Structures are given as structure tokens and as C-alpha cells.
Amino acid sequence: MNAQDIVKKHSKLILYNETKGLSAVEQKLFIYCIAKAVRANDIDTFHSISIREFTGKKNPSIYDYRKAKKALFALQQMKPLYVELDGKFKSIVIFPTLQGDARSIDNDKDIDKIELAYKLNDELKPLIIDLKEAYTEYLYSTVSKMKSSFAIRLYEILLQQAKFNKPYSITVDNLKIKFGIQDVKTYATYSQFKRAVIEKSINEINEKTDISGYYEEEKQGKKVYKLTFFFTLDSTHKDEEADILALSPEESLVYNVLPDEKTKQTYLKQIGKLPKTSSNTKDVQTDEIKTKKAPTQQTLFDESTPSVSPEFKEKLDKLSMRLGEIGLEKSVIKVALNKYTENPQWKIWPEVNNVRMAIKDGKDFPNKHTLKKVINES
């Protein structure tokens, strides 16, 4: 298995209500296990967990192994998934059986030698294997880099709703149930829930995935009782993802060992699967350049800018596009990109998203001028 493997879920397995709020590690491990079963097209046998694959680290540590093992047992011990399908409900235990070496390890080099395996419940088969309709799929790599379990869940839900081409509305109480935190005191008040869950999730989704969005609050009296999410899928990312999903196992293996993005693009071209932008997308991009003069990353970097990973380059491209849409000058965007490159932990995304929401709502503040000040003075 690799980062480009497909996660494929029936809609019912996305819209289920969590009985316990999962940690980010637990959420990712559940998704990893599903992706591995989808890749093998087999749910009836044991599948081994590769800590190297799961974490995406070349040299995982014993700590990574222990975290994965702890998460696996937590998933087995959690209350069953409650899923309604074909007019009936099913309460499903995810992992009826786990197996692995009883011996402990104390050396990082032994991680690849020790077994940690799972067998998914047979009842999950119609929800992840041979799906023909009512399913959602995405790349495991999209969620593997996310840090918030709530962001992962919200990403899946919004992606599932994307096919309806309309905003997604849900009450605050029902969203808490989806996250499995309806009884957690930490998120009892809306202000706490908004700050710790919604805002962080939207910021991470906007920064790290192919979805761009924001939300609006609906009140009953003074109380916020419903949220409506407005979102779009990034067309360029979606085209590239579609091509990656079309790779055969052999092609995917070659693709994922190539050293850089340029080499990967050359390989895709050689096998006839280089992503092509549709004419409609080209027209939109041309119009944006004419009306907004949206800059590109290539023209904005100083020659001294250090090389960046393909993953971080995606973030830079997205930041450049968003700042261009807001209407910032090329010189300001250049400053922002250089600062973000020097400090990837720079908290620029919340500022960008706040301005975008204000523009959408017709508000005067915050605006591009306040954002420009943040960029130049931070």
C-alpha cells in the first residue's frame, strides 16, 4: 500500500454517527485499514499494518508503533458503528479479531519485523468492496497529512455532499453527534465548539485538501443552532487525482518512487496519463488572470527561495491563488510566499479565510488592507 491508494466508502459509512470521538491517529488508522482492504479487494483475510506506510515516515520509531497499536485496540474496543442500509440498521464492531507478535520491541530497526494485523468485520463488505453507487472515494494521502480528527471527518462529509452541488446544512447538535462529542464538556458551549472544532477544521481543510470552503451560522433567537457549509472542489487537484486513481498497481508503484514532481509529470506523460485541464477550466483561469491578475508562484519567488517539497508546493500554489483572488498586489503576495516558505507554521490561513468570509458576507472588515498589514508586519 502507498499514499496514492484509494479510500472508498459507501455514503452510509461516511454519514454514520460516531459513538466516541476518535483521535486523529484512530481516524487515520481506520481509513488506512479500509484503503488497504480496498486495494486488495479482500475483507475476509488478515491484513498487516506497515508502520512505515501508515505514518509515511522513512524511519518510524518504536513510539510510532506503540501509537498505532494503541489506536488499533481502541478502535476494536469502541462502541459499534451504527449504520442504516436498505431499510435496516446494523451495529458493527470494526475489528472482530486482531493479531500480532506478543513480544515487545525496544529497537527501531525491529519495527518491520514485528506483526500487527487486523481482520475487518464481514458486515463492512457491502460498504467498502465492489461499490457501484452511493460511494465516495479519495486518496489516502489527502487525510494522512491532516492533524485534526474533526477536520478528517468534516472533509469526508463535505466530499460526500459535493455531488449534490449545493451547500450542506446541519444543526450544531447533529454535527456534534457525527463527531461523537455530544456529551463532551469541553465542547459544551457553541463558542468552545466553534473555536476548537469548526474553525480549526475549516482552516486545515482549506490549507491541505482539494476543498475550499467557509460556513455561515443560523440563529434561533441568540443561539446558533445550524451551520451551512459552502465549498468547492479545486478543479486542477481533482483532475490530477482522477488520473492518479486511474493508475494500475504497477504504474502506481513506479509513480510513488519517483524523486520529484517534474519526474512524475514526465512519467505520466510517457504513459499517456498526464492530467489535462478542460477547456472550461482554462477559460476560467484566463478570465481570472485578466480581471484579478492572479499571480503564479513561479513569478513570485526570489531566486534565493529554497526548494520545497511537492506537498508544500501545493500549499504555496493555493496561498498564491487565494491572495490573488482577494486582490492583493504581486509584491505583497511575494512577501507572503517567502514568509510562508521560511516558516511553514506561520498562521496566515486563518487570516486569509476570515477575509474571504467577510467578502462573501458583504462585510467591510476584515479586508485586503488588514490582510496586507498582517503580511507585511508579522
Automatic annotation (TrEMBL):
One of its GO terms (molecular function) is DNA-directed DNA polymerase activity. SUPFAM superfamilies: Winged helix' DNA-binding domain. Residues 278-308 are annotated as: Disordered. Residues 294-308 have a biased composition (Polar residues). It holds the Pfam family Rep3_C. GO terms for biological process: DNA replication initiation. Residues 6-158 form the Initiator Rep protein WH1 domain. The keyword Lipid biosynthesis does not apply. It comes from the Bacteria. InterPro entries: Initiator_Rep_WH1, WH-like_DNA-bd_sf, WH_DNA-bd_sf. Keywords: Plasmid. Belongs to the initiator RepB protein family. This is RepB family plasmid replication initiator protein. It comes from Flammeovirga pectinis. The lineage of its organism: Bacteria, Pseudomonadati, Bacteroidota, Cytophagia, Cytophagales.
